[in-house]
C-alpha cells in the first residue's frame, strides 16, 4: 500500500483501529515565477490531452500546470468546453483509452500518470474521492444510504465492516442525517441525497476531493447548503480540493486560489480575491464583466474550436486589448510573485 494517507478525523470519531500512516509528500516543482507557500499535495506539470477524432485532433488540455497545497481549495473556472473536466479526469485516469495524455501529475510524490490500473483503483475513492453533480447517478436506488456510505468506507480499505458502519453513521450525523442511514434514496429529498453522496465522498478520509460542478442546476439556497456540506467533509479530513465550477461566486466563497482556463490552457492563476478583484488576464476580466452582477457584458465572439486553434494568443480574436503582435506566438508567462498569467501585453 502506498504511504502518505493521513488518518482522517472521521475515522478518529468512529474510533476505528487502523494505524496512522507516515507522510511522504514531495515539494511540488514550482512554475517559473510562482512562489509555492507550503507543499503541494497535487502538482500537475505540462499536462496535455488530445483526442484524435474524425473531425481532427481535439486539443482538450494544453500544457496545463497547477498546484494544490495541503488543505487548500483550488477552483478551476472557465467557459463550457475549456477542458476543466478533462483535467479532473486526467488526475483520476478516467479518460477514454484513445486519449493521448502527456505530462506529469504528482500526488504525494508519485506520478499518477505512471500508475497501472490496479494501483490507480487504490487511489480512487481512498486517497482521492470525487463528488459529482447529480446524486441520482451516484446513489444506487436499491441500497440504503447508510449501506452505500459504509461501502465507500470499506473501499477506503481501512475499516472492518462494523467500523465502516460506524464511520458511515458518524459522517451522516455530521451532515444532519442522524438516524437516516436505514433509508433508501427515494425516501429522502434531493438535498438529503446530495448530502449522502457528499458523505460517501468524505467517509474514507480522502486527501484530495475533486468536485465537478457540484452546484450546477441547483436553487440558490441549495447551492450554499452544498458548499457548506463540502466544507464540512473537507475540514473533517483536512483534505485539499479541486473544485470545478462555472459559478465565480461559489469559487469566491469556497476557494483559496483560482485557476482560469480558456480553450484548454490555464491563462491565469492566483489567490481567489486577487484574481476576482484585479484580474490580470483580459479573459479573466471579460469573464467577470459577463456576470449579471457586474453589468452583464457578454464576451464577444465564441471560444475557438478545440480542433482549429488560432495562432498566437488563443484569446486574441475576442480580446479588446489585442494588437497585431498577439498573433505572433504563444504569450509569455508573466508573474507578480503571487500569481501568473499568460499575456503579451496587459499587466
Ligand atoms: N471523449 C472525448 N472525445 C473527444 N473530445 C472530447 C472528449 N471529452 C471531452 N472532449 C472535448 O474536450 C474539450 C474539453 O471538454 P471538457 O469536458 O473538459 O470541458 P469542460 O470545461 O469540463 O466543459 P463543461 O463546463 O461544459 O463541463 C471539449 O472540446 C470537449 O468537446
Ligand atoms: Ni465539465
Automatic annotation (TrEMBL):
<dbReference type="InterPro" id="IPR003439">
    <property type="entry name" value="ABC_transporter-like_ATP-bd"/>
</dbReference>
<dbReference type="Pfam" id="PF00005">
    <property type="entry name" value="ABC_tran"/>
</dbReference>
<dbReference type="GO" id="GO:0005524">
    <property type="term" value="F:ATP binding"/>
</dbReference>
<dbReference type="InterPro" id="IPR027417">
    <property type="entry name" value="P-loop_NTPase"/>
</dbReference>
<dbReference type="GO" id="GO:0005886">
    <property type="term" value="C:plasma membrane"/>
</dbReference>
<keyword id="KW-0813">Transport</keyword>
<feature type="region of interest" description="Disordered">
    <location>
        <begin position="1"/>
        <end position="33"/>
    </location>
</feature>
<keyword id="KW-1278">Translocase</keyword>
<feature type="compositionally biased region" description="Basic and acidic residues">
    <location>
        <begin position="23"/>
        <end position="33"/>
    </location>
</feature>
<dbReference type="GO" id="GO:0016887">
    <property type="term" value="F:ATP hydrolysis activity"/>
</dbReference>
<keyword id="KW-0547">Nucleotide-binding</keyword>
<feature type="domain" description="ABC transporter">
    <location>
        <begin position="44"/>
        <end position="288"/>
    </location>
</feature>
<comment type="subunit">
    <text>The complex is composed of two ATP-binding proteins (NikD and NikE), two transmembrane proteins (NikB and NikC) and a solute-binding protein (NikA).</text>
</comment>
<dbReference type="GO" id="GO:0015833">
    <property type="term" value="P:peptide transport"/>
</dbReference>
<keyword id="KW-0067">ATP-binding</keyword>
<dbReference type="InterPro" id="IPR003593">
    <property type="entry name" value="AAA+_ATPase"/>
</dbReference>
<dbReference type="Pfam" id="PF08352">
    <property type="entry name" value="oligo_HPY"/>
</dbReference>
<dbReference type="InterPro" id="IPR013563">
    <property type="entry name" value="Oligopep_ABC_C"/>
</dbReference>
<keyword id="KW-0472">Membrane</keyword>
<dbReference type="GO" id="GO:0015413">
    <property type="term" value="F:ABC-type nickel transporter activity"/>
</dbReference>
<keyword id="KW-0406">Ion transport</keyword>
<keyword id="KW-1003">Cell membrane</keyword>
<protein>
    <recommendedName>
        <fullName>Nickel import system ATP-binding protein NikD</fullName>
        <ecNumber>7.2.2.11</ecNumber>
    </recommendedName>
</protein>
<dbReference type="InterPro" id="IPR050388">
    <property type="entry name" value="ABC_Ni/Peptide_Import"/>
</dbReference>
Amino acid at each position: 500500500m502506498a504511504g502518505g494517507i493521513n488518518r482522517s478525523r472521521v475515522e478518529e470519531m468512529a474510533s476505528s483501529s487502523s494505524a496512522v500512516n507516515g507522510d511522504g509528500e514531495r515539494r511540488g516543482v514550482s512554475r517559473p515565477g510562482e512562489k509555492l507557500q507550503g507543499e503541494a499535495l497535487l502538482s500537475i506539470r505540462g499536462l496535455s490531452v488530445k483526442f484524435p477524432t474524425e473531425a481532427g485532433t481535439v486539443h482538450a488540455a494544453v500544457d496545463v500546470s497547477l498546484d494544490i497545497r495541503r488543505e487548500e481549495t483550488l477552483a478551476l473556472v472557465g467557459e463550457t468546453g475549456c477542458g476543466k473536466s478533462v483535467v479532473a479526469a486526467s488526475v483520476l485516469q478516467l479518460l477514454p483509452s484513445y486519449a493521448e495524455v502527456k505530462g506529469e501529475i504528482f500526488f504525494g510524490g508519485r506520478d499518477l500518470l505512471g500508475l497501472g490500473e490496479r494501483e490507480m483503483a487504490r487511489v480512487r475513492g481512498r486517497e482521492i474521492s470525487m463528488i459529482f453533480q447529480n446524486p441520482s447517478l451516484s446513489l444506487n436506488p436499491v441500497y440504503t444510504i447508510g449501506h452505500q456510505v459504509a461501502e465507500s468506507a470499506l473501499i477506503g480499505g481501512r475499516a472492518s465492516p462494523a467500523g465502516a458502519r460506524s464511520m458511515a453513521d458518524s459522517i451522516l450525523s455530521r451532515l444532519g442525517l442522524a438516524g437516516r442511514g436505514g433509508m433508501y434514496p427515494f425516501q429522502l429529498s434531493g438535498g438529503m441525497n446530495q448530502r449522502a453522496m457528499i458523505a460517501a465522498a468524505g467517509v474514507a478520509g480522502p486527501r484530495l476531493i475533486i468536485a465537478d460542478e457540484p452546484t450546477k442546476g441547483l436553487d440558490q439556497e441549495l447551492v450554499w447548503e452544498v458548499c457548506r456540506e463540502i466544507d464540512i467533509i473537507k475540514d473533517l479530513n483536512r483534505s485539499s480540493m479541486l473544485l470545478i465550477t462555472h459559478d465565480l461566486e461559489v469559487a469566491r466563497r469556497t476557494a483559496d486560489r483560482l485557476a482560469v482556463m480558456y480553450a484548454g490552457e490555464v491563462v491565469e492563476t492566483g489567490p481567489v480575491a486577487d484574481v476576482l478583484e484585479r484580474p490580470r488576464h483580459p479573459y479573466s476580466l471579460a469573464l467577470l464583466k459577463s456576470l449579471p452582477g457586474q453589468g452583464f457584458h457578454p464576451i464577444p465572439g465564441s471560444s475557438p474550436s478545440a480542433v482549429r486553434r488560432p495562432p498566437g494568443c488563443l484569446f486574441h480574436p475576442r480580446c479588446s486589448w489585442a494588437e497585431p503582435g498577439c498573433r505572433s506566438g504563444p504569450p509569455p508567462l508573466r508573474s507578480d510573485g503571487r500569481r501568473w498569467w499568460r499575456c503579451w501585453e496587459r499587466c
